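User: Okay, second chain of the day. Same drill as before: sequence in, structure tokens out.
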Amino acid sequence: MNNTDEKILYFDHNATTPLAPEAMAAMMPYMQKEFGNPSSGYFLGSRAKEAVELARRQTASLIGALPDEICFTSGGSESNNFAVKGVVDFTRPSRCHIITSAIEHPAILNPLLYLLEIGVDVTIAPVDGLCRVDPDYIRRAIRPETRLITIMLANNETGTIQPVKEIAAVAAEKGILFHTDAAQAVGKIPVDVSELGVDFLSIAGHKLYGPKGIGALFIKKEKLLTPLIHGASQEMGKRAGTESVILEAGLGAACERAAETIKEDMARLSSLRDRLQGLLSEAIKGLVVNGHLVERLPNTLHVSVPGLEGAKILEGIPRLLASTGAACHDRSVKLSHVLSAMGIPPGEGMGALRLTIGRTTAEKDVEEAAGLLIERIRRLRVGKG
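Assistant: Same drill. Structure tokens below.
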């Protein structure tokens, strides 16, 4: 994992988070003696069913939903696919229009590209230089056949928080369904589905200290989606397949922990992020902070070092684990689609670093990471990299 004996500095919490102790503890019984199928009628199955429903209540509570509005999925990608494809009448796809933004995660953009190929009409809204969608653009893009608007709550690269509440109000006014990919937001900032006014909301467990392979889709009561997976009647008929009790228990516990500590976590993480930003800005000439400086996730700092490549910077600091863009594109040599949409020049965008902190990050880790980055950039600039 690490070629040195030195401590790893993990600054990639937007890619994934370590498993919370509470989540691990909740999962353990269902990896051992509590192996029942929740659909079984005897006591072992009943106990498994109770665990699933507890996890459903815990997940719902974190986002202000009702338990029966939570459908467990395999993760954020499935939740997004379910919301986007579930609104389409596949017998008449050309009668469906969907609006999204240019900075969405591939788990939104790629399903929409597929739908575009089979006849669904898709409008991709631009963003400004701060990575924000304009609600007025969305309003102007609406047509009589618009079926869904899907805009992420917080961008996974820059951390910029979108005006989802305002856009959802536009959708409601026009009688259009609204979905938000909240994978990066849930657990990091307060999220309330009623306050936001959304019909569908996606959650990814491993982004909030839960296990990988589990997520959820909030489906507002009385809103209908065509299932992606057909079979038996699990998940209230919305998603067939035997429930993953182990993973659902872990997600539920992670959500409960997030609900208990979110205000404390936000204050601490934003303080550490600002400390990191201050150290880098003071020492690195020409450093650019990307995204909105106020409306952003408390743990996310996205910067660019013009004239250098982010990958080259990190290459010389093997124990600093960070990203040069969205985690799933980290090895790409092309400019991130998010930075391109923001209008950032390639010479600046290629020097991008996404530094995301988490619960286990200490102030000394921030100071050490800043020191390593400052020294590495200094050496590269004088040709000693």
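The chain has two domains: 9-18+261-381, 21-257.

User: Thanks, on to the next one.
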